[in-house]
Amino acid sequence: MASIKKDINWETKVIELLKEKKLSITVPRKMIIRLLLKEHGPFSAEEIYNKLPKNTCDQVTVYRCLNQFVETQLVTPSYFEKEMVLFEFNDPHHHHHHIICKICKKIDSFHDCILNKIETSLAKKGYKDIQHRLEFIGVCGACQNS
Amino acid sequence: MASIKKDINWETKVIELLKEKKLSITVPRKMIIRLLLKEHGPFSAEEIYNKLPKNTCDQVTVYRCLNQFVETQLVTPSYFEKEMVLFEFNDPHHHHHHIICKICKKIDSFHDCILNKIETSLAKKGYKDIQHRLEFIGVCGACQNS
DNA sequence: ACTAAAAATGCAAATGAGTTGCAAATATAT
DNA sequence: ATATATTTGCAACTCATTTGCATTTTTAGT
Description:
2 copies of one chain form a homodimer. By secondary structure, chain A is of the alpha+beta class. Chain A has 2 domains: 1-92, Orthogonal Bundle (Arc Repressor Mutant, subunit A); 95-134. Chain A is built from 5 helices and 5 strands. In chain A, strand 3 (97-101) and strand 4 (107-110) form a beta hairpin. The mean pLDDT of chain A is 84.
């Protein structure tokens, strides 16, 4: 009973999100968004595909959906390394960043957002040899009228 | 005369850098480092290959060299998008970050390094709809003794 | 609801940046 | 100068992601 109710709530929430972004409501889209809401990644496209119930959809569909979600900013991609794009639900109320271990590749996240504060907080967590990558993405003056 | 002298200086500087990183001195390595010192990227592996004088080396060698340079931190990679890794000489005295235009993909760089300051400075430069990606890379506690 | 038009999906095939194996060439150390 | 180790070129390969097209599902209009 409780779980049915809970699923109905997920369904409603997910449909709302898709409508907000003007994306049509399809089974694969709903399943992927629900997964990303329930489990907090970041996950690769392949991990997402594997986490979906068998026969939910083709792997190609996962790629297509994720691309659309990124375009509509429903989902945020992180580019840690070559061939390592990880996706996460984009919740503006839980803005955060990640740290990846160079060796074991485990990813941890933190909610600080000023660089020096961050480095201190990461050092306290036991990380050594910390580097960072900071990239901004925007629309330049020249492209604003096109 | 002046240009020969200048080239000799480049040669010396480049050899010094390679030795510092304990990399053997080869023609392709020297050429790639010299290019990255002379022109400030960031450049893709392909761009680098094309900028090298014809027949300097194979494209595979460019990939191999760049990977070694990244490993030894002689060069810094930026991951703006999937399949878009850009390389730059890593000069600790000119620490900076980039902004890419979502539309035209032109890359600009800036030297501020506190997030709010940065966003203000980018807005002054005329960018709109600014997002950022900040990732940290380090060695976690568990991996420090392995 | 019913139907036509639009959009999304599955499958198979293609793409393409980056990697790998191996023999030949080059660099390093003694 | 010679032996050993490293790097390079070439060709073939890999593998995540994309694309084309026929089929299915969704949406919007009546």
